[in-house]
Write a structure and sequence with these properties.
heterodimer, B: five-stranded mixed β-barrel, 10 helices
């Protein structure tokens, strides 16, 4: 699964999938180490994103005191 | 000096001009009496106090709250002298005043809108999952808005928040909020609309019981969350909204995940799978040990059987050894069995050469 450009929510979902694999029927020991490393890297990326991400707050440039009378 | 003589019509016109200039939008407060609605659209009532009374007229669409006699109101109006000489106020907008009037008006309106189904639970929509864009309607100068933004920024990021600045109290607030709702609905581009206003008195929050505003919230195609007042306050706008938050801060909490809680959960999940991983390795190690043990036992049994088999074969071979046959008293005879021929005899410990004296048929007993 390509990771470039994925949102924080998508990355968290990806991590959840990796973690769910460990509890699923498809668990295979030989594959587990590689998957665990993948989960560690992904979790570090997510934690960095969580620390850095900011909201963009924009006040709309419009005067809502002016406009048509609001007749029923 | 000649006196100015007016016709009745001109005098009325002059009076109205003076009234309009002096009181272009006067606000008058009083108690309602003789309330009636004619032809379903013309509203008449008197506004009175202990010392005087004035007649009021307005169009029904401008009446934003149900009113009845005895309620205290505040009207914005233009005074006028009618053609038949009656002084009245032409009302532009009205709001109930004081706890009693507000409560009465609220009860009437709540019953009316509830009967129409505006507050039905089946109409409520959940907040979208993975929210990306929020439309906010609030006063950017208000404390409630500041609280909302603070909690929003603490909890989560990556959101685009577009703010429609409006009044959030007073007679003009309802229309401004309705315009902002219509703006977001017509333009689109947001996943949810949040109407935010901090705590205040019942008068301050009265705008959120405005009938037209409540209807606009119920009709919004975009889900609406309200975060109005304090926890104990409940307005009709709250009842019409899809989701109700107890306060502006609570609205920010309901709209977002908590980045700190997410980090804690990630750490817990990693610890759990680490423990699970180690447990699986231990299980595998035990399984290998058990398998090796079984293999060893199987090999031991096999070896024992093979050894036993070998011993038996050795015994058979020993019995077939010619030396053992000679030991039991048998003799090996070599040579031609004919009269006069020499034959070799071999016993266990002797060899001899003998001459054949005679040959005859042997009598057998088998």
């Amino acid at each position: 699964m390509a990771k470039a450009g994925r949102s924080i929510s998508e990355k968290i979902d990806d991590l959840k999938s990796e973690i769910d694999w460990f509890y699923g029927d498809e668990f295979v020991l030989e594959e587990a180490m590689e998957r665990y490393r993948k989960a560690l890297v992904l979790s570090k990326t997510i934690e960095e994103d969580l620390d850095k991400m900011k909201n963009e707050i924009v006040v709309i440039d419009r005067d809502f005191s002016q406009g048509d009378s609001l007749e029923k | 000096m000649q006196e100015q003589v007016y016709t009745v019509t001109d005098f009325q016109a002059v009076c109205n001009q003076i009234l309009e200039t002096a009181f272009s939008g006067v606000v008058v407060e009083g108690e309602v009496a003789s309330f009636k609605v004619n032809q379903g659209k013309f509203v008449f009532f008197d506004l009175k106090d202990d010392g005087a009374s004035v007649g009021c007229f307005m169009m029904k669409f401008a009446l934003r709250f149900p009113i009845e006699d005895g309620m205290k109101l505040r009207v914005r109006a233009v005074p006028k002298l009618t053609a038949w000489g009656k002084f009245s106020l032409t009302v532009q907008s009205v709001i109930p005043v004081g706890e009693g009037s507000l409560k009465k008006s609220l009860e009437l309106l709540k019953r009316k809108l509830s009967d129409e189904g505006l507050f039905d639970a089946a109409k409520k929509r959940p907040l979208p999952i993975n929210l990306e864009r929020i439309g906010v309607i609030s006063s950017t100068q208000a404390v409630g808005y500041a609280d909302f933004c603070k909690i929003l920024n603490e909890r989560w990021g990556g959101l685009r928040v577009e703010v429609a600045h409006t009044q959030v109290q007073g007679m003009v607030a309802a229309d401004q909020i309705i315009r902002a709702l219509r703006y977001f609905n017509e333009r689109g581009g947001v996943d949810v609309i949040a109407i935010i206003r901090g705590g205040g008195s019942a008068d301050d929050l009265a705008v959120f019981n405005d009938e037209a505003l409540v209807r606009a919230i119920a009709a919004s195609r975009i889900p609406v969350i309200t975060g109005i007042g304090h926890e104990v306050d409940e307005s009709l706008s709250d009842l019409a909204a899809d989701v109700v938050a107890s306060t502006p801060s609570n609205a920010a909490q309901l709209l977002t995940r908590d980045r700190r809680a997410e980090k804690v959960k990630i750490e817990q999940d990693l610890r759990r799978i680490n423990n699970l991983f180690n447990s699986k390795i231990d299980d595998a190690r035990l399984e290998v040990k058990r398998t090796v043990g079984e293999l060893r036992r199987a090999l031991e049994i096999k070896l024992e059987r093979l050894s036993e088999d070998l011993r038996m074969r050795e015994q058979i071979l020993a019995q077939l050894n010619p030396e053992n046959v000679l030991k039991r008293g048998y003799v090996i005879v070599r040579g031609k069995l004919q009269k006069g021929e020499l034959m070799e005899l071999i016993t266990y410990d002797r060899e001899a050469v003998v001459e054949v004296k005679s040959v005859g048929q042997r009598v057998r007993f088998d």
